[in-house]
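call fold(seq) -> tokens
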Amino acid sequence: PDHVVVVVFENHAYNQVIGSSSAPYINSLKSGGANLTQSFGITHPSQPNYLQLFSGSNQGVTGDSCYTPGFSSAPNLASELIAAGKSWASYNETLPSQGSTTCSSGDYARKHNPWFAFSNVPTSTAKTMTQFPTDYTTLPKVSFVVPNLCSDMHDCSVGTGDTWLKNNLKAYADWAKTHNSLLVVTFDEDNRLAGNKIPTVLYGQPVTPGSTSSTTYNHYDVLRTLEGLAGLTAHAGNAASAKDITGIWAS
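ret:
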């Protein structure tokens, strides 16, 4: 695909979202795209899951407390993209300013933004949500979108997050359907009551509408798939031994 946008929500189990009347937009993406019915987070709490999704490892971080920015030089999705001459950015809602490494500010929490852990990812690639382009052809090859603590369903309801997704990314999703691009919606972890089974939905032209996969996947498999979709041959951390998501692609 030309562009891939990944949105990560917080702390909800599969059955809290998929099939829920509180999440009409996410369920419309499921119906028009692909649904992974056996998708799992790796651990608890939140922060290590984001690091695992982004770099194939928790990089020694097992909790949610703030690390020193740039403490790791391990390979990750962004560093691999940059090394291959491809573009990367993150769009972080309520980030005080582009590249800010602050730990928390209002509804912003750095624990959901794993790129700040890596010295090989320029902090300038961490943008605010207001910098998300309206001309989608200018999007990076791969980008992550991280809602704030309310919009991501952490502090607010499933319905709040679903509406935020529709308001902020429906226009991109609609465009992706006809422009060889992809939207991935996933969660960091469940509510600790469902074996860490989470919603993961993919939508866009490369995806077979209405498809499902019941293969068991986790964050490492999603990372490996994102690397492959971007045309990367490198695999970060445990993505090297992970599996590509299959059975949902249109070609």
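The first strand starts at residue 3 and ends at 9.
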